[in-house]
Amino acid sequence: MGSQGQMLGGRRLPASGWILFAMAMFGIFAGSSLPAQDAYRKGSLTDAEFNGKKMFQQRCAVCHMPLVIDDSRTWGPALSAETVTGKEPVVREFIRRGTVRMPGFQYGLEPQEIDDIITYLKTVKKTEPKKAPE
Ligand code: HEC
After folding, report:
1. Does residue 46 sit within a domain?
2. Counting atoms of ligand 1 from 1, which one is nearest the CA of 109?
3. Ligand 1: does its nearest atom lie under 6 Å from the Cβ of 79?
4. What pLDDT is stored for residue 126 in this prediction?
5. Helices 47-59/111-121 angle, 10° precision
């Protein structure tokens, strides 16, 4: 009788259980809009660049990043440092206003958020140009 009570009392949730739980929660959160495996990796990015990256993944990647399985095309052009460097004011205005094929973000993003996205895009290397479908 006494020994049984001790067995029950000796049971506790191992610390590793909590770590796994936390990892699972983070995985669900990070996976919610994950076009590529490293979507939310900060790496060597500055805070502004990382913020811009997260914003880009959430708001722009759907049109400007290739799909995971069929990466043969994107709706919008691939964006990189080359697209934005030296043209920041034009690009900022472009993102604010949009076009017939791209929504404008003047009411959807703070000016600072748009600037962060541009700052992030300056860290992106140019990839093979993808043609938007006609
Ligand atoms: C609904 C799809 C869509 C979304 C979402 C979208 N874009 Fe675009 N974007 C386009 C298309 C399409 C073009 C090509 C311009 C055109 O055809 O009107 C474009 C063009 C651009 C260009 C100009 C590229 C060039 O070389 O001329 C920039 C810069 C740009 N987008 C940035 C962004 C940013 C930043 C976001 C997120 C805040 C974003 N876009 C969200 C579809 C989109």
Report:
1. yes
2. 38
3. yes
4. 85
5. 100
Q: State whether the beta carbon of 75 lies less than 6 angstroms from ligand 1.
A: yes
Residue 103 makes CB contacts below 8 A (sequence gap 6+) with none
- Judge whether 70 lies within some domain: yes
Asked whether residue 83 is assigned to any structural domain, the reply reads yes
Whether the CB of 132 sits within 6 Å of ligand 1: yes
- Whether ligand 1 lies within 6 angstroms of the CB of 104 is answered as no
In a domain, 63, yes or no: yes
Helix (H, G, I), strand (E, B) or coil at 42: coil
Which CATH number covers residue 86?
1.10.760
Inter-residue contact 127 to 78 (CB < 8 Å): yes
Question: pLDDT for 39-51, tens place per residue?
Answer: 578 889 999 999 9
Structure tokens at 112: 């600072």
Nearest CA to ligand 1 atom 5: 60
